[in-house]
Specification:
Layout lengths: L1 E3 L12 E2 L2 E2 L2 E4 L3 H12 L4 E4 L11 E4 L2 E4 L5 E2 L4 H10 L6 E2 L2 E5 L2 E4 L4 H7 L2 H20 L7 H9 L1 H16 L8 H8 L4 H8 L13 E3 L6 H13 L3 E3 L2 E9 L2 E9 L2 E6 L2 E4 L3 H7 E2 L4 H8 L3 E11 L9 E4 L8 E3 L14 E9 L4 H4 L2 H13 L9 E14 L5 H12 L5 E3 L1 H4 L6 H16 L6 H16 L5
Parallel strand pairs: 1-16, 4-5, 4-17, 5-13, 10-20, 14-18, 17-24
Antiparallel strand pairs: 2-3, 6-7, 8-12, 9-12, 10-11, 14-15, 15-16, 19-22, 19-23, 20-21, 21-22
Helix pairs in contact: 1-9, 1-16, 2-9, 4-5, 5-6, 5-7, 10-11, 11-14
Amino acid sequence: MTVVLDIAVPRRPPGPRSEEGPAPILVLGGGPCGLAAADALAGAGRPVLLIEEQPFIGGAAASVRHGEFTCDFGPHAYHIKGDRVDALVREAAGEPLEEKDINQKLIIGEKLFSYPLVLWEIVRRLHPLFVLRAMFDFVVANLTYKIFKVPDDSFERWGVKRFGFTLYHLCFGQYTQRVWGVHPTQISPKLARQKLHKLNLVDLVWKLLGGRGQEQATYWRKFHYPDGGIGRVWEGLRRRIESKGGRVMTGAEVVALEREQDEIVAVHCRHNGVETRIPCSAVISTIPVGRMAAALTPALEDEVLLAARDMKYRSLIVVNLVFDVPRVIDQHWIYLLDPRFRFNRFSEQKNLGSRCAPADKTVLSFELTCDLEDGVWLAGDDVLRQRAMEEAAKFPGLPLEKVCGCHVQRMKRAYPMYDLEFDRRLERIFADLSRVTNLWSTGRHGLFLNTDMHDTIEMGLLAAENLLADEPQPPAAYYDRSAGYVRRKMATVKT
């Protein structure tokens, strides 16, 4: 049975008007991007309904309550950039937000190092032969690739060309392989450009000497984090949307986008076990672009559906070990670079937000990426707890005898996977989506980008502003503009 849900909001929308009232603009996905877009639309007086599959909002940046504890899917810091997005986050948080200094370390061998790496610490604490080999590899790589013009055809080639194999492998290579589950030769160089695009030799040396260098996601120093968890920002945005007449529907899975010729006329959701048809005037989608393209009905061409099916993602598991002590570590994050680890990093969220745990207890959150439905994903909570305990035992000084509980969080398709063919598939998908005149895909998942929360929120605002314009850009021009946005974020230092 399909229920038709007509949402009439007494405001003036774009597009057609029915006898029951104006059809709303639908925003698919309740992460930072979707919430920002819905807030901007509601603030402009447009009828808007945000649809989120999870029972909570925030996407992979959500905060989830477990009894006395608030836990993210790994703590998500908001990087401060000094613009309107910062102002929106501060207002939505509903509490004063202090600028905090990032305190993070990484493990090399069995030693804890500053992150970013500091040259004197590497020289003093790593074996001299290793340091000499890193310097030799760097010189050889730079001479070799200046003589022989070899293309940047993978993440590994991009890194080795610029830093030599030893330094590349230490700083990026082995960690990248663990996070993405494939060898870096099978990962697109575009991921390196997105994450490390401002990093060149002078910049790296300056960082190794302890300087700040070029600002980028890997090396942010200042951040915001509400004392009660980053989820306070998303709940604040939800309240703003609803106070302006918008609606937020959680626990609703998008199953189809119904179109007539070149327009989306309704979205079909499965909500509380019932399929619901929601008429609409326009759609801003922040859900994974492959899933969204596959949901269009009538279906797109077989070639496009094949490309959509092959868009890959990594899922996320967070194992939260509860300790019956006030504090365990001093750092916000510790990255596990050494190959003997299976998890990517661990963190103590209470160090970011003091109200995320009671005064006498704390939680260490161990993050692990995996493929959906693989052996790790299917492992029971007891198995994952044991693996996290084994991982913690490799880190000296943790009071494992004080572990008094555990809860496991899972997030399907948390991170877009940038294999060597992803951009070719994406280009094919957007070529067909551009023909749908009232559908705009945006955000980390909607544009298949590796972005931080600031840029994800900004993309939501830009999508809403486009829709609110007197003459909105058609989708083809909009996607070109989005590509230009990415290029502007990446285009600075020549490496």
